[in-house]
Amino acid sequence: MNDRSKKTNQTVTLTDNASGKTYDFPVMSGSVGPDVIDIRTLYADTGYFTYDPGFTSTASCESTITYIDGDEGILLYRGYAIEDLAMHSDYMDVCYLLLFGELPNKEQKAKFEHDVTYHTMLHEQVNQFYRGFRRDSHPMAVMCGVVGALSAFYHDSLDINDPWHRTVASYRMIAKIPTIAAQAYKYALGQPFIYPRNELGYSENFLHMLFATPAEEYKISPTLAKAMDRILILHADHEQNASTSTVRLSGSSGANPFACIAAGIASLWGPAHGGANEAVLNMLDQIGDKKNIPEFVKKAKDKDDPFRLMGFGHRVYKNFDPRARVMQQTCHEVLDELGMTDDPLLELAMELEKIALEDEYFVERKLYPNVDFYSGIIFKAMGIPTSMFTVLFAVARTVGWIAQWNEMVEDPSQKIGRPRQLFTGATRRDYVALGKRK
Ligand code: CMC
After folding, report:
1. What pLDDT shows up at residue 1?
2. Is 239 in the pocket of ligand 1 (CB under 6 A)?
3. What pTM did the predictor assign?
4. Residues catalogued as catalytic
């Protein structure tokens, strides 16, 4: 434990009914949120492990970065409400905040933007690396590979015990991830890579690298750049979710930062996590028409059918997802700007949202539209193909992963992550030679 958390005077007593023995465990308090029972000596004291698949009741670390109150629908980055940051700040502000704990002043912001911008280009040989992928590779597969490969190119930022190396690695990843993502897209299209333009803002530059071609000028819409910036802010961090925990767990062995972020990208890819925004659009395509909604809602409610309404529900938010509120508004702004308010797919999405919000099954289980429900729709309207949706999530989340990874490396109580198990497999048995096996 480091000195941010407090050991309270309170204890929790565990009684082992088999032996009649009792054990006291200390209770620790954070600055807000539920207290935790410190069970680090549980196994040594009692001989028991805890069993908590999915970590539904387990705090895996101490953190000062992001706080979520799922029942109240609250999300704070370093104490600031996500709604305030999304409406009044920009992504570079939020990156600085997540990394360093405070919003930057003007000078700090200018220096940070300069330092990050300085790293936007990729080593030219990384550009060659793309050619090893099939043209029809999923861009998330390309992201895992190329981000992992950065560790083979930037040897001067691999020493995790050196704070300067960590800073350079952090800036490199924040700067290069949009370039890598845009190039994954261009590679799939067969278009030439568009190099970053450092006079543009972070989100503008990203749109430029995605949509410009050498053949004609690409005009960046301020509304779309603002929407992209907001999406990046909303997805920048989300405390100890699957991909962040993956980054922390991989990093806990001392692995290099680029490899850890590649591991986070792999975890994010799954449809229950970052893959959900892509799954939303695939689901809307599958539903096809408003008249089919009741049939799909019925399937989602059927326990014998694995189908779920993508973009609904959240492990932590059992009230409205606060990011979804901002995203809903942004969604309407983007659709207005693009003159797409009567797009049939979007009408279908809005109808589905309405029906699900009124349906007893969804209301009872507090299954509200989550951030991915709206982000998928916005990306679609912007002309971004569905296979790129999770990539955009990865671009946004990179700073959160890095902030969490840095926090872990700097935490004096940090240990290699090593969960235990409840073993239910075969116990020791005699080896059977190949010829004697049934
Ligand atoms: N459609 C239909 N039923 C659902 C859904 C859904 N989308 N989500 C949960 N349920 C039901 C589930 O069947 C269960 O019902 P019952 O109590 O009768 O058995 C109940 O609601 C609780 O579900 P759970 O699976 O125990 O909840 P969880 O916290 O483990 O799952 C979730 C959270 C996000 C994985 C899940 O809601 C889901 O699969 N949603 C669709 C995928 C999605 O949109 N994911 C994006 C999450 S937001 C992005 C991020 O932060 O990564």
Report:
1. 47
2. no
3. 0.89
4. 314, 372
